[in-house]
Queue: 2 jobs
Job 1
Amino acid sequence: MISASTLEVPAQMTPRERLLLFALARASCPKRVLEIGSCEGGSTLLLHRALEPSAALVVIEPTPRWTADTRGELEPRAVLVEGRSPAALPLASHRAGGRFDFVFVDGDHTAAGVEGDLIGITTYLEPGATVLLHDAHYWGVSDGIARVLALGVGYADAGLLAVEPTPEVGRVEAGRPVIWGGLRMLRFSPKPLRP
Ligand SMILES: C[S@@+](CC[C@H](N)C(=O)[O-])C[C@H]1O[C@@H](n2cnc3c(N)ncnc32)[C@H](O)[C@@H]1O
């Protein structure tokens, strides 16, 4: 269960975001979890520690930087697919043994990348799946989410659940301030097919 040390992981997330990710993964009791973007594996450790022993955890990351200790804790449950989303999604779903009911997106932070991830995963999501996006304050991530919501492909927006901004003071991109952080939740609720 949770203790202060549970949240002490090499994650690129604030303490509040770590707590929320852990709590949502724990409370949702997902069966198949996908993480897009793991880097040093801190967020992967949080997911792993939150899940029931029977849950599957698949990670897509082109350049993993897991230490031997991190790998030792994550394996054999966490399956690492060394590739990029969305191209690696079919293999990730295959390795999970089915569709995902919980996804943590923290990979390509460009608007096109987020759009590609969110559209790409729809094929591999259970109805009602929870999709969490980190760095939702970042303009690329928020623009990508907005584009996908406008397409109406089955996502309902639950909004920002972790609201704390992590600004990069003085940095501006495309005329927009660079602000990291923020966890936004989408729920995948595809419309039932008409008879
Ligand atoms: C912000 S870091 C992830 C941090 C990690 N989730 C954490 O909180 O500790 C972003 C990671 O996404 C990876 N990445 C970039 N593009 C990707 C893609 N298309 N698919 C999967 N991972 C990607 C990068 O290699 C990098 O390691």
Job 2
Amino acid sequence: MKLTQLGLSLDQQLCLDNLFLILEEAKKTKNFVRVDMESSAYTQRTLDIVAAASKAGFQVGPVIQSCLRRSQKDVEDLNRLGSRVRLCKGAYKEPPGLAFDQRREVDENYDALAAALLDGGREPAFATHDDRRIAHVIHCAAERKTARGQFEFQMLYGLRRRRWRELAREGHQVRIYVPYGTHWLPYFYRRIRERKENALFVLKGMLSD
Ligand SMILES: Cc1cc2nc3c(=O)[nH]c(=O)nc-3n(C[C@H](O)[C@H](O)[C@H](O)COP(=O)(O)OP(=O)(O)OC[C@H]3O[C@@H](n4cnc5c(N)ncnc54)[C@H](O)[C@@H]3O)c2cc1C
């Protein structure tokens, strides 16, 4: 879920109260709740809220974006706290001071953060459709003899269906994210407005499968 949908841009305590209502329900069914990461304007507040929720004993974890320069330090801190992290490249247009502006740098940072999460993280999740990043994770996990049940790949419903099945057949855990309900269209528009590459990405994915 996205914390701005729970009031993050209005009031941090309101957002935390709303999140706790959801986490209480999730706890009843022993469910883990992933909190998405939004633009860099919300990074610290999101990490603070997830840390407060973890401290309160809920099964909840944040997302780290490899496009952000701060992410290496964030991963170190989250590893120390034993947080369950999802790693992604980042879907938001960010100011160059805060983010890498070259695709190559975002990819290199993804690989470095993936290795750090496999070294010291707890059940990390690697959200990507990029074969090179997936290959790097598999290589690092094999080098470290990390069991396949100790990490997972995540992709979006509708993209790279064949690849999910291949990974699952090879014994990897794969989780597919499904936007559902009546508000999927505004969600889709928002993703496109955030960054025009998102539209191209979805169209490419739909055509290539
Ligand atoms: C489960 C999940 C959760 C996410 N959560 C967040 C979040 O909380 N916050 C956030 O900012 N972003 C999130 N994202 C979005 C993410 O940050 C990226 O914007 C998005 O996933 C695109 O990056 P990529 O790593 O998939 O690969 P890209 O860099 O877009 O693509 C790299 C390469 O992958 C290959 N590829 C990609 N798609 C295909 C395809 N369909 N067929 C063949 N090859 C393909 C191509 O070679 C392509 O050049 C999430 C993504 C996923 C999958």
